[in-house]
Amino acid sequence: MWGLLGLSELHKKRIEVAVNIWGEILNGSFSSREELVSYLEEVYRTNRLEPIRGKTKINIWDKELATLYVVGKYGLALEEELYSFQNLFDIEVKADRTISAVLEGRDPRTTLREHFGSEDEDHVFRVLRLAMTSVVLGFMDEETFIKILAEFEKAFPELRENFASFKRFYIAFRMAEMIASGKIRNRIEKEAYKHAMCVKLNADKSAPSDDFIRDIVVSTFKVPEHRANGVLRMA
């Protein structure tokens, strides 16, 4: 469904770790999702990797299986094998099918109910997390992600505040990437990029704080705090 758009050096280690974990999956090392989640956390900690996240840590290691799924399906072309391990990736398979249906013009609410059996808020954001992870790792273009997000916003108006928070997280994460890669070098560039992203996502009221951006830059991308503060002018 999505072509490889190029893998960021920022996420090279994350992808390498995911590829290695797939070796264990294909060897039949895990009999349950819980075992895989536990192993993923152990390997990430050993490699000083943080999951893709904002402020919340609720079920974050389970949610990070989206990275394994995306790398397996679109990076290693293991689509057929994935269905043999659906017990490990049940949520991601359902989320992926939901994304495909929405991109074909299906109603998100109806499609979510078909695949997940409910319209639960957690399922909505598992779908969006899978799409975001695909963008971050280079397997989906941002315009496609924005289209998916917009369709869910229209279908679930009662989750307006939740979508605003998700947009805030997405913008902060993308800005953190730009700072870590040296593409945002000062406060002027930071403010310009933040404004552009808010316009792009129709998120005028969802601009992330500099503190939020810095937390991701430092914790996820291991940028020294003084360098992050220098770009954000927070020193």
Helices, strands, pairings?
Blueprint: H1 12-26, H2 33-46, H3 60-63, H4 65-75, H5 79-84, H6 90-103, H7 108-116, H8 121-136, H9 142-155, H10 160-180, H11 187-200, H12 210-219, H13 225-232
Helix pairs in contact: 1-2, 1-4, 6-7, 6-8, 8-9, 10-11, 10-12, 12-13
Written description of the protein model:
With about 240 residues, this protein is mostly helical. It has two domains: about 1-155, no CATH class; about 160-235. It is about 65% helix and about 0% strand. It is built from 13 helices and no strands. Helix 1 (about 10-25) packs antiparallel against helix 2, helix 6 (about 90-105) packs across helix 8 (about 120-135) and helix 8 (about 120-135) runs antiparallel to helix 9. The longest helix has 21 residues, at about 160-180. The radius of gyration is 18 Å and the shape is globular. It starts with 11 loop residues before the first helix and ends with a helix. Residues about 1-5 have low confidence and may be disordered. This is DUF2192 domain-containing protein. InterPro entries: DUF2192.
What is the count of helical runs? 13
Percentage of residues in DSSP E strands: under 5%
- Average pLDDT metric: 93
Termini separation comes to 44 Å
Helix proportion range:
55-70%
- Count of the separate structural domains: 2
Largest sheet: none
* Poorly predicted runs: 1-7
